[in-house]
Amino acid sequence: MQLLLFLSISLIVPSTYQAATSHGSVELDEYSFDKITGKFEASLIKFDVAFPYGDKHDAFVALAKDAKDVDELLVAEVGVKDYGEKDNEELAKKYGATKDNFPVVKLFVKGKTEPIAFDDIKGFTSDELRRFVRENTGLYLSLPGCVRELDKLATKFIKAKTDERKKLFAKTEEVLTNLREKDTVSGKIYKTIMEKVLEKGDDFVKSENDRVKKLLSGKISEEKKKELGMRLNILQSFQIFDKNGKQNKEDL
């Protein structure tokens, strides 16, 4: 189905298809926008100049590559020209994007009438884009420091009752013995969080999340910032999101 969809995109925008899909992002225009985005659970769209470049564009491209296996998510770009026939200018304006505020990133979620704007106050990075998508859709996008297999166990763990949690904790210990060396530090963080939840209850996730954020807002070394950022990412794996990407009442 995905192959047929992308073949249809190539027929719609043949002049740009090869360039766009080479980095995992699809190029859309006013004719293909609704047709293509409507087929996905969520669409992350960047409105930008026709030939974008720079750190923000590179961050978006990096996210597109990382999301290539997430079938429910479309990552796409709308290139806007302010000359000639001014291609896609009206489409961009419809969603509050103009040459004065490019690039503008919007997340379109199926079932929601209005797109969600990406606020780059914390930085326009691929990590923040991942976090933005994950928090607003519940779709899995790996964050730095996270291990996919342990993320799945973390999600099951936080949803489970106490007896089942103990079994999942034991399974986590088994997984840790087979981790690649580069993932061992992350693995210990997952284990520690589970131990603390078993000891102190669900409130630990929120209190630890708040504590780490407070530390990150202070003056710390780059090495410590990276370490705490990884911990914050892993903590997110212990949060439960509903189908609309919002934390449900059981979550912290």
TrEMBL record:
InterPro entries: ERp29, ERp29_C, ERp29_C_sf, ERp29_N, Thioredoxin-like_sf
One matching Pfam family: ERp29_N
Signal peptide: 1-19
Superkingdom per UniProt: Eukaryota
Keywords, sorted A to Z: Endoplasmic reticulum, Signal
Residues annotated as domain ERp29 N-terminal: 21-144
Span of domain Endoplasmic reticulum resident protein 29 C-terminal: 145-238
Record keyword rRNA processing present: no
Name this polypeptide is given: Protein windbeutel
Source species of the chain: Chilo suppressalis (Asiatic rice borer moth)
Source taxonomy: Eukaryota, Metazoa, Ecdysozoa, Arthropoda, Hexapoda
